[in-house]
From TrEMBL, chain A:
CDD domains in alphabetical order: GlpA-like_Fer2_BFD-like
Domain of life per record: Bacteria
Domain FAD dependent oxidoreductase: 7-358
Signal peptide: none
Pfam annotation, one family: DAO
Protein name per the record: Glycerol-3-phosphate dehydrogenase
PANTHER family per record: GLYCEROL 3-PHOSPHATE OXIDASE, GLYCEROL-3-PHOSPHATE DEHYDROGENASE
Organism name: Candidatus Hakubella thermalkaliphila
Domain BFD-like [2Fe-2S]-binding: 403-456
Automatic annotation (TrEMBL), chain B:
Keywords per UniProt: Oxidoreductase
One Pfam family named in its UniProt record: Pyr_redox_2
Limits of the FAD/NAD(P)-binding domain: 7-304
UniProt organism field: Candidatus Hakubella thermalkaliphila
InterPro entries: FAD/NAD-bd_sf, FAD/NAD-binding_dom, Metab_Enz_Cyan_OpOx_G3PDH
Protein name in UniProt: FAD/NAD(P)-binding domain-containing protein
Molecular function GO labels: oxidoreductase activity
Length: 486, 424
């Protein structure tokens, strides 16, 4: 007995998996996406610098450079079709020592070789005129006008919702336990919820892609996590930046950057620490101190007194390094993606297109569907509506008149939409990623006692079963004594 | 076009808002409106089912809901209009308010406004507590709401960071509900809340409190499994070797309250970075004419009774303003925080106000002095008033009344300054 029968199984609901799901939904195919967490984009894709890179500093000639540069050109259209927050703000790569300043011409040449032609050198005065709050130690910088910011989880959710609207089936909270092959051909994927019959498997498991690759016995690499810690600053911190501020990169890391976010905060980070546990996303005293000290070299006014939260994300590091997208020779129907590192949020749509072409090359029949709908619309957030729009929205649905998140002004109507959308939110964090409820200054002090009860009511489950981020993260343990006696 | 015009609009129906509405009405304002975002009047008092309220105002020991009800009855008796489930989104300096409620957007014009939004709790994020980000980390007030309003326990085994009043009260409450409270840790060398709460909530229930300790790590992927505490040195830095793992499923935070002034800022009200609340004069008027502020939105009080008194003061003057549409006196004396004074309210004072009655100064010290001190009020370097305290601590607000007869001593002065001096 099969849980499901399909043509393609995509393993992993991160940025890359969601992009592939949406790409394949253009064709007359049945596709399934399997994700072990309770939501898409719950791991690497949600905790990063939230930047769409131009690829100006990618390794020249690499698949990574090719895909990042290609992806960058897709975003204007993609953001328009899928309606996710995305802004072309531009970056300043800032040198604060003479040695760093001397490295800039080389970086500019690298950008040219990567096909990023609009990068230009700026002198000290120009840099400080553009961003007056930067350190007066500035020697000069590189302007990279097309570097952009995005909400990475909203992007992944948007791609997933659009894929679902075009017929892709998503199994969330479902872990892949094995891949079945017979006579060198993929037959099925076993999961914690049952077996899915398929002739194609795409391994987009990111951090865990080595473990999935082992299931077909094709793993000549390993993946280790590199942790990056970040601060998010209050929207009203007494300093503002309009551009992404990048340090001069070192061989190991792009360094600690400061970036505006699409929601009006500043984001500061990351560290780059090689660790062992693929789920160890804790923040540390040392890491946070390193971020603050590093970023203060660029923006001296920055202070941890203005932070509202901190987080850590993991980038998958492949050994040996390098983006790798390959169709298997031994196991017909298996396509492995590995080494998609920190640039993966950016490259995801180009990786998806690359996978599409590769799959077709090795025999997947791709016949375009005439009824593919590329458009997905997000509700306009109450917080950004005009007075008239608010009045009109409340008239249609009174839930718009009930604010459940005091900091970000999120209404019950938006929470209900998040729960009842095609990729319905099932946890507090999933609602947060879709609505911003809980992302503000009070960090869930207000909405955190209201939304669990809305979730319980809408899902028809006891409130003790409502979680922060999936099974094991229940918010409440049970009724108080008096209630039990009643 | 505003759908509604009012004499006085009060935002918030906690102890400050209720008192302000009563005082405004009693002063003669006709249309007084309370806007409350919750479904009931009373603000946070509703979830404070412990006693300790009303000792000063009623000389009775009441629970929060009982205390609130006394004022709710008066509000209703006086014919104050109330709007529940209504959240104010915006205020203009011209005192136009925009609010929403179930199915409706409202625009209201007010002759005077009293800001009485209270305060909120500092979060984990503001403290940058390291570790994982599991379920099971709540502010004490969040836990209080889960238990007292919703009837649900947020955990079984607790560690508490910070020794604020809500934290101590919740520690005891959790014991009543059968939970284990492993420990409370406080980074400062003294208790954050009132001594009476320390005795009645911690000592009486054998809940250990460790001063000069903090939480340096949170463990657990999905749900809190343990926190790591450590002793801190005089610069609040963890002392290596003093780490201790406390197994627990919940970490409660009671690490300070912050006046909630997002709305005030929209109205152009200037805030004092030391208090987080508006700059006010002796009538509780802000820099924006006709906009008054009362209670924890101005600075965080020790007792609800004092918040009520602040509400009466602000409400009376808001009522007065609404009737006469007249800004108060321009003769303003600055009140300055001197030695060992963190801040003092009001920020400015009309010397002639003393002719109308005694005026109270409210202050907090910067550091504790566990010995008798003088609190000196000086005008142009000359002592105006002196009060003796047996000890002073930042957690306990000091109040000094300037009697009308002191009027002569401050007339002509440029500023008043308050300082705390050890008795020698």
């Amino acid at each position: 007995m099969y849980l499901w029968k399909t043509d393609v199984v995509i393993i992993g609901g991160g940025s890359v998996g969601c992009a592939i799901a949406r790409e394949l939904s253009r064709f007359q195919l049945k596709s399934v996406l399997v994700e072990k967490n309770e939501d898409v984009c719950a791991l690497t894709g949600k905790a990063n610098s939230a930047i769409i890179h131009t690829g100006f500093d990618a390794p020249v000639g690499s698949l990574e450079a090719k895909l990042v540069v290609a992806a960058r050109r897709m975003y204007d259209q993609l953001a328009q079709e899928l309606d996710f927050p995305y802004q072309v703000v531009g970056a300043l790569l800032v040198a604060v020592t003479k040695e760093q300043w001397q490295l800039l011409p080389e970086l500019q040449r690298k950008a040219l070789r990567n096909g990023v032609f609009d990068v230009h050198l700026l002198g000290r005065e120009r840099v400080l005129a553009i961003e007056p709050e930067l350190s007066d130690q500035v020697y000069g910088g590189l302007a990279i006008p097309r570097e952009s910011i995005v909400s990475p989880y909203e992007m992944a959710i948007a791609m997933a919702e659009n894929a679902i609207a075009n017929g892709v089936k998503f199994f969330l909270g479902t872990r892949v336990t094995g891949i079945e092959t017979t006579g060198g051909t993929v037959q099925a994927v076993s999961t914690t919820r049952g077996k899915i019959k398929t002739s194609w498997v795409i391994n987009a498991a990111g951090m865990y892609c080595d473990e999935v690759a082992q299931m077909v016995g094709e793993c000549d690499f390993t993946i280790t996590p590199r942790r990056g810690e970040f601060f998010i600053m209050d929207k009203e911190a007494p300093y503002k930046l309009r551009h992404i501020i990048l340090p001069v990169p070192t061989r190991i890391s792009k360094g600690i950057l400061i970036s505006p976010t699409v929601s009006g905060n500043l984001l500061v980070g990351p560290t780059a620490e090689d660790i062992e546990d693929k789920s160890d996303t804790r923040v540390t005293v040392a890491g946070l101190a390193q971020v603050m000290t590093g970023a203060q070299k660029l923006l001296p006014a920055l202070s941890s007194a203005h932070t509202i939260t901190q987080y850590a994300g993991l980038r998958p590091v492949r050994h040996p390094e390098g983006y790798t997208v390959e169709a298997s020779r031994q196991n017909r129907g298996y396509i492995g993606i590995s080494g998609v590192r920190s640039t993966g949020v950016t490259s995801a749509p180009a990786v998806a297109a690359y996978v599409r072409d590769l799959a077709e090359e090795v025999g997947l029949k791709l016949i375009p569907r005439s009824n593919f709908n590329p458009l997905r619309r997000q509700l306009k957030p109450f917080a950004s509506m005009t007075y008239q729009e608010r009045a009109a929205a409340i008239k249609v649905d009174p839930h718009w008149g009930h604010v459940v998140c005091r900091c970000e002004h999120v209404t019950e109507a938006e929470v209900l939409r998040a729960i009842h959308s095609p990729l319905g939110a099932r946890s507090l964090d999933a609602i947060k990623r879709r609505t911003r409820a809980g992302m503000g200054r009070c960090q869930g002090g207000f909405c955190g006692v209201r939304i669990p009860f809305i979730l319980a009511r809408e899902l028809g489950i006891p409130v003790e079963a409502v979680t922060k981020k999936g099974p094991g993260s229940e918010i409440l343990v049970g009724p108080i004594r008096g209630e039990m006696m009643r | 076009m505003p759908e509604k015009k009012c004499d006085v609009v009060v935002i918030g129906s906690g102890p400050a808002g209720l008192a302000a509405a009563i005082a405004a009405k009693e002063r003669g304002a006709e249309d007084v409106l309370i806007i409350e975002r919750g479904e009931e009047l009373g603000g946070i008092l509703i979830q404070c089912i412990h006693t300790g309220f009303g000792l000063e105002i009623f000389q009775e020991d009441l629970t929060g809901p009982e205390y609130a009800q006394r004022f709710i009855d008066r509000v209703e008796g006086l014919g104050v209009e109330t709007m529940l489930g209504t959240m104010v989104l915006d205020i203009t300096p011209a005192r136009r308010l925009y609010a929403i409620q179930w199915g409706r957007l409202l625009e209201i014009e007010a002759r005077a406004i009293v800001l009485a939004m209270g305060c909120r709790e500092r979060s984990r994020g503001a403290l940058a507590i390291p570790g994982t980000r599991p379920a099971g980390i709540y502010t004490a007030g969040t836990a209080q709401r889960f238990i007292e309003i919703e009837g649900y326990m947020p955990g079984e085994r607790f560690a508490i960071l910070g020794s604020g009043d809500i934290g101590m009260i919740m520690a005891r409450r959790l014991v009543f509900e059968g939970a284990r409270v492993e420990r409370m840790v406080e980074v400062l060398p003294y208790v954050g809340g009132l001594v009476r709460n320390y005795v009645q909530c911690l000592v009486d229930y054998d809940i250990p409190l460790q001063l000069q300790h903090t939480v340096i790590d949170v463990k657990g992927r999905d749900r809190v499994e343990a926190v790591v505490s450590a002793q801190v040195d005089d610069n609040f830095q963890p002392i290596p070797g003093s780490e201790e793992t406390i197994p627990c499923d919940t970490l409660l935070l009671s690490v300070g309250l912050i006046p909630e002034n997002e709305l005030s800022k929209k109205a152009g009200v200037e805030l004092d970075p030391l208090t987080g609340g508006p700059y006010v004069d002796e009538t509780m008027q802000t820099n924006v004419p006709g906009i008054f502020a009362a209670g924890n939105v101005v600075h965080v009080y020790d007792l609800a009774d004092w918040v009520t008194e602040a509400g009466y003061l602000a409400g009376r003057h808001a009522g007065e303003y609404a009737i006469h549409q007249r800004r108060g006196s321009e003769r303003k004396l600055r009140v300055i925080a001197g030695d060992n004074v963190h801040h003092v309210l009001p920020h400015v004072l009309d010397p002639l106000s003393l002719e109308r009655g005694p005026q109270e100064l409210q202050l907090r010290v910067q550091w504790p002095v566990e010995a008798p001190v003088w609190v000196n009020v000086e005008a142009n370097g000359k002592l105006v008033k002196r009060k003796t305290e047996r000890y002073v601590r930042p957690s306990e607000m000091i109040r000094i009344k300037l009697p009308p007869e002191d009027h002569g001593k401050i007339v002509g002065a440029k500023e008043l300054s308050v300082r705390v001096e050890e008795k020698s």
